[in-house]
Structures are given as structure tokens and as C-alpha cells.
Amino acid sequence: MNNEIAPVLDILEELKQECKVISKAQVELRTTLAEQLSNPKGDSVKTQESMQIHLSKETQAKIKEHQLFVLEALSESSKKLDPKFEMLQELISKQ
Q: What does pTM read for this prediction?
């Protein structure tokens, strides 16, 4: 059973690392925005807002992609485990 769970755990670890990267990028973006807002120059604020929206959309897309990947992996694991659980239930009911 651990063999079926291992890929899911690997995927979750990968997601964890991706989340750290995303969080770091968001902190860097906030720092840049704060620096530029303290020295306003009109267009630079609009540019930074556009960058933030773009990064937010990229982040959302990446998160959605990973969610779909995890759901697919969980579905595959479930398909492999369901017959085993059914056999186990049959054995229990026979005893």
C-alpha cells in the first residue's frame, strides 16, 4: 500500500516546494511595490499593478495546474486501492 501512496506524497512535497517559491516571489513583489510606492512616478505604479495582476494570474494558474495533478494522482491511487479494500471487506465479512 505504501507504494501507491509514495507518488502522492512526492506530489505533495513538490506542491509544498512550489508554494514556497510562489510565497517568496510574492514577498519580493510586495517589497518592490513598497519601494516604488515610496517613490511614486505615475506610470511605474500602473506598471507594478499590471505586474501584480499578471503574477497573481500566473500563481492561480500554477495552483490550479497542481490541484488537477494531485486530483489525478489521488484518483489513480484510489483506482489501485479500491479493489484491495473490496477484497479486505470480503475477507472480513467471511470471518
A: 0.42
